[in-house]
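note to self — DONT lose this again. spent like an hour looking for the file last time. sequence + predicted structure for the chain T wanted, 449 res
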Amino acid sequence: MVRALNTNSIDAAFEERTYRKVSRRILPFLFLCYIFAYIDRVNVSFAKLQMQGDLGISEAVYGTAAGIFFIGYFFFEIPCNVAMQKIGARYWLGPIMIVWGTVSACTMLVKSGTGFYAVRFLLGIVESGFFPGVILYLTFWYPSRYRARMVATFMTAIPLSGVIGGPISGRILEKMSHAGGLRGWQWLYLLEALPSILAGLATFYFLPNGPRDAKWLSAEERELVASRLEEEDRRKRASAEAKHSLGDAFRSGKVWALCFVYFGFTMGNYGLTFFLPQMIKDTLTANPFYIGLLTMIPWGAAAVSMVLVGRHSDQTGERCWHVAIAGMIGALAFAASALPGLAGIPAFVALTIACAGIAAAYTTFWALPSAFVTGTAASAAIAWINSVGNLGGYFGPSLTGKIRELTQSSTLALFTLSAGCLMSVALTIIFFRKQSEQGLRADVASSSR
């Protein structure tokens, strides 16, 4: 039996080395898996450049199909997250990746708008357990003062999937347009699904369920990680505001507020993500490969902003204003990109700033829920926030497609996305300014022991 550690007397250098060791082991693999997941989720934005003409679908049909992914996501996310807590990450996340890769590849067989709706809805169902499962999984390893940085590092996979996937998708469309009797967009779905399937198989061998199963940590390191989490759990349970049970997650007004905060940011994120290649085609270049290269710029800026803002939030212990200010910058940049007469390079620069601001806001956002939910409530709350919030991923693309079809312009669509982000900023300040200040004081007290 491992002797319980007195964590108050542990050398800070040992603790830092332990968490660096944990991060080096689990974060690169999770990061890579999320890159594959996100490419499979959003490569439809590049496929659209050929697929829309081949299938004869409208902007509204495309926007609805792109976003209907999140309707399937909504219905299955909570049971999936509760199941992962019972089954364990290794035997839950691996099969999910294999199945979603298979479903994503099947998009190459779509022949009509109805089939497009069906496969995107199914993809949302099978992927619904991955992202919230990983966010929950990180809470099995890191106390709150590390969490914004770790979540930001993990979620940097979102913009980097654009940096990596954009040029690859553009090249596939350009070079494989008629290879083997298939169109470029069909090859895109097939080739970009294979890494997800392979990573799912690797998960069975690589990912421990939690610190107690991590054979690559020493006994003292495992005990340190577990003890830090237990200390934080006891502190939360002693708090009058802490929520512990499954029912608490749904009765909490702050959980519902977080749902709508995430809704607005997600609406802006996916409204841009699913139409960015088309906007570049409309204003800068029609060459698929050049479009892919240009998408690297906003996603690269987003990656940098996510890491810097998440790190600064952890260093200061402050959450609310990091989320609100980043979200405000994103909202104002959306509005600026939609100004009449602004087109080409200036509009692209504004969209790049919008992408960076929104990305920094919704990554740091995930440090807020863990401040007042614990136990079973944590898994349910994370899943519920992500489920309801991700409905913005349906409304953003759907509204953008319908508005573009009606107005033959992106102006009103971009103003709509800006308004959604402003709503999230206002709710963050109203509901979580006090919580953020309390969290800052608790983290300072904890780190000084």
